[in-house]
Amino acid sequence: MTHLRIRLARALIVSALGAGLAAPLGAATEEALRAAVASPARKQADRARDSQRHPVETLLFFGLEPGMHVLELWPGRGWYTEILGPVLKERGRLRVTNGDPNGANEQYARMAREYEEWLAANEARLGKMSVVRVAPPEQLSLGALGSYDLILTFRNNHSWLNGGYHDAIYREAFRALKPGGVLGVVQHRAPAGADVAASAKQGYVPEAAVIAAAEAAGFTLGARSEVNANPHDTKDYPKGVWTLPPNFAEGDKDRERYAAIGESDRMTLRFVKPKK
Question: Which CATH architecture has domain 2-272?
């Protein structure tokens, strides 16, 4: 199944190439990704998510190459950082956003401190990367105009909508990307036609709302993939998307049922900043 997904991702990339939207991907990129994913340094709990998050296929679809300048938005505890870092550390550059480790909100400040401590402790493996401080909506600059080849975000759109700065992030990502650069988005997907504000509170966002925000910022939808789709996700749980693994927000209640469903149904969208 994994090889089938990779072939499908390659087919979509080839299709994008025909429209002049992507650069060729060599076998070295896939090899580097596979090595990073297979690293024994990754925690077993993180590796257990690979079969449902499809990191190799997803990053191939977005067009990642080892020489790129990449920005990861809102990286959480670094699940994708741990894969991106080794691939980019020799020839490319990875930057990550993070909050203020000394901020007023102790919970967020602690998470920011723990993430940066983890980056420092794993520098030899992940490479030395710089942190872009963000505190939206007041502090939202992602870097100089046209800084990045690729900007990535994984499962963050609902938080941006709940915070009231979703559209502002898309505008800033557009500004910070180079012409021809790519914005790769993975997000928990609400049913078509769902109320955006209500569904975001449950962790889901309608795909049309994400596309509309990106296009309003100036992006073109280059391609979409179903590599992270899950038709078993009914999207109607007591505690929203966090009811499903890996969070299991209801604890042991119906845990086997939620484990059988798996992680959420997710959109995987590849947006392009036009060259002109």
Answer: 3-Layer(aba) Sandwich (3.40)
